[in-house]
Design a protein that fits this description.
The protein is mainly α and 136 residues long. The chain contains 6 helices and no strands. α5 (80-97) packs antiparallel against α6. It is globular, with a radius of gyration of 16 Å. It binds protoporphyrin IX containing FE.
């Protein structure tokens, strides 16, 4: 039987395993590696703090999660399959490693944040299309 996500070490294991899958994924790997050219050495610790904060309220993450995605979307519009792939890998990673209340909470929070992100990105992209139509 698997244990729950109980502490920072577990969060780090979750994040490390998840981003290994992300990097190797045919759909979103290239977005991170080739389009955004993510510096993993700075990105990964942010994600430790982000998820530690979500699950255990540690408050170490002081950033704003949405703006980097809006910025990336300006040059490389997000596609629905990015969210599908991201979430499928996140669920797969959590289920592979953990089981319990925090594990369920992590999946629920991921789907909620991804939905808000997708919704806001869609609004931005529809707005951009509308203004193009209006300009004609
Ligand atoms: C749908 C696919 C997604 C893609 C392609 C994506 C891509 C990215 C990229 C390129 C960055 C900037 C990394 C850098 O600093 O160079 C970033 C940052 C980040 N992403 Fe995502 N992301 C996705 C979904 C998500 C979701 C669903 C969440 C949360 C549940 C999330 C959480 C974050 C956080 C916390 C940061 C750091 C923001 C900061 O700088 O403070 N991402 N993401």
């Amino acid at each position: 039987m698997l244990s729950d996500i109980n502490n920072r070490t577990d969060v780090e294991n979750l994040v490390d395993t998840f981003y290994e899958k992300v990097r190797a994924n045919a759909t979103i790997g290239p977005v991170f590696n080739d389009v955004a050219r993510v510096d993993w050495d700075t990105h990964i610790p942010k994600l430790y703090d982000f998820w530690d904060g979500i699950l255990f309220g540690t408050g170490k993450y002081r950033g704003r999660p949405m703006p980097p995605h809006f910025k990336l979307n300006e040059t490389h519009p997000f596609r629905p399959e990015y969210f599908d792939a991201w979430l499928a890998l996140f669920y797969e990673t959590v289920d592979e490693l953990f089981e319990g209340e925090k594990a369920s909470e992590a999946k629920m929070r991921a789907v909620n944040i991804a939905s808000v992100m997708e919704y806001r990105i869609n609004l931005i992209n529809e707005g951009a299309n509308n203004s193009l139509i209006h300009r004609k």
